[in-house]
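Quick note —
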Amino acid sequence: MMLWLIIGILLVAVVLALLVPLVRNQPAAVDRSEHGFEVLRDQLAEVERDRASGRLEPESADAARLEIERRLLAEAESRDAATEGLGYSVAVGRRRRMLAAALVLLAVPVGSTALYLLHGQPGLPDAPLASRSAERVRMAEVAESRLGLTEMAANLERRLADQPGDVDGWMLLGRTRLTLGDAPGAVDALRRATVVGGGGAQAFAQLGEALVRANDGVVGQEAKEAFFQAIEKMPGEPRSRFYLGLANRQAGDLNEALKWWISLEADTPPEAPWRSILASSIQSAAAEADVDLAALRAKVRGDRRAAPGPSTEDMAAARDMAPDDRLVMIQGMVDGLAARLESNPDDLNGWRRLGRSYLVLNRRTDAVEAYRRAAELAEDDVEVLLDYAHALFPAGTSERDMPTAFVSVIDKVRRLEPENAEGLFFGGMIAVRRGDTAQARALWTQLVERLPGDSPVKAAVQRRLDALSKE
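Predicted structure written out below.
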């Protein structure tokens, strides 16, 4: 109601501002003939004064007077004609002003109201003061968060200038810049991470994503190369598989995109945060391609089960294949290896090879089981135990989600080889989880002393030690 009252007041103000000049009586134009009359009358009076004073002969005075009177008569006739025309013009002007006023009274309110009803939202409820205050608080929080991220990025840049070998720092800087919307800056930082870190799968995958963001969502050639590098190092890497499917869709090859995405869908856990986006992309592409999605899913998954674990030579040969052919070949060979191991369960190297294959295909549950079988066959082999530990607690998993089986394996590694670097590192994490900060400090201090000065891991462990000192 308040909105309409305000609109009404504004309309009245606008209409009055337009009407007042139109309806006000216009001042009559100054008749220029009046000036001529005054001049002639003055001239006539001057002739009479000259005649009375003797400066002008009576005959000359009469002639001058006659001429002036004749001019007065002509001026009077001209004035009458002008007055008649002026009256007509005034009447016409008045009618025109009245017509304009009527149009203003009609057009301004009706036109303004119609435009508002057409393009406005009259039914939108007022925003309560409390909600607007909450919105301002949220905006302030967002601004403060961005400021904090900006300061963190600046601090990281200064630290990395002194510690250029800190791969974790470069990756964190890349993610921070990406969050701040600085995609080109993120690309620069993540490129450094791929070089410093020896080209890890996650570094290449994040670099590819930053390149996509910097290219307005288009998966360009450089981004595709980064994703293929990530998949070569970890063939099951989900981010790369999703974006390579997107690259095919952007190229117009919907069937190829669907093969990538359906294969990724089969390996995606139900609780994965990207699953809903993946499912939406699959549905959209299938509708656009007008394909039977259920049949295509059955075919892609059937190919995965039917196909023959891959050897190093197999993986090298697969590198030059088309992406979908490569994936089908690898998955088929993995399933074939699993079937053979069920018939020959004492093959230690076979179980380890199967575990590695499952990990690169992002089939973590299967990888854990394969490495568990290997660890049962080699209970005192630290290398086999660490393979099992990595499968139980892969990189990127929150420390809060550390499984009990992982703790047991690391404890066993530490008993078998007390100075093992990974045993020291993970042992410190486990100690922190148990609340034993003294043991964590001792283990990590021992690890820092054994690592070379330029090791990125050393910097990461030192940060953990510094954090313990503040507690």
